[in-house]
Amino acid sequence: MSALVHSLPDLVMAWGRGRAVSRPTPPPTAVPGGFRVHVAASSGRIRHVLHTFDSDRLGRIATEQTAPGSQIRIAGPTSVLHEAVPPEWVMDAAGHLMTVPFAPRPAEAPEDYRIEVTDEGDLTVARALHRGGEAASARLGRSGEFGVFDQVNTDPAHRRRGLGTAIMEALSNRALDLGMTTGLLVGSDEGRALYEALGWTYRSDFPGASRKETETIA
């Protein structure tokens, strides 16, 4: 199934549900044009994620969210969010919403490494192990037919050996075995080029902004 059959609102909502599985945080609550969710399980900070919006609404949300660390993310141009939020908000690193149709992939670990994949309910975790220690890992939160990749990390001592690709391919294969059809992730500027080389498709800019944390005076 082509990832392009899915609408942007469908993708944004699925990303929110799958990411909540990965973190884990309480499930997102639907709001007009998107959803809201706690930034962390025990936090009072709220993240609004919107696929449909206008500048006035973004400004109102930013004004109403007074807790430091509150966040807004949109599927749309970075400039729109930047111009809508007040000065006490700062832009986060750029993000890009991307998709891929799951298909069988060779998931071969480099020499001296072993890939381990485990399921924990709707969460699947892949780890690259080296001499008993963890060299890389990634998480996949299930949201119906979607698998949301999250927290793809490689230890600095083990980078540039293909581990990130290997564990993502292992997760893709497991997702396919579990009946998922489409992968979702949010990549950085640097990550976007890597994921496109692996067959992922850019769907939308996905910028975020957050209210400045309260400064501590010594």
Outline of this structure?
The protein is of the alpha+beta class and 218 residues long. 26% of the residues lie in helices and 35% in strands.
Secondary-structure blueprint:
Layout lengths: L7 H15 L6 E3 L2 E5 L7 E5 L4 H10 L6 E4 L3 H7 L4 E3 L4 E6 L12 E7 L2 E8 L2 E11 L2 E9 L8 H15 L4 E6 L1 H9 L3 E5 L2 E4 L7
Parallel strand pairs: 3-4, 10-11
Antiparallel strand pairs: 1-2, 2-3, 4-13, 5-13, 6-11, 6-12, 7-8, 8-9, 9-10
Helix pairs in contact: 2-3
What does this structure look like?
Helix content is 26%, strand content 35%. By secondary structure, the chain is of the alpha+beta class. It folds into two domains: 3-95 and 206-211, no CATH class; 103-180, Aminopeptidase (3-Layer(aba) Sandwich), CATH 3.40.630. A seven-stranded mixed β-sheet has the order 7-8-9-10-11-6-12, with helices on both faces. Strands 1-2-3-4-13-5 form a six-stranded mixed β-sheet, sandwiched between helices. Helix 4 links the parallel strand 10 and strand 11 (182-187). Helix 2 (55-64) packs across helix 3 (78-84). The radius of gyration is 18 Å and the shape is globular. The mean pLDDT is 91.
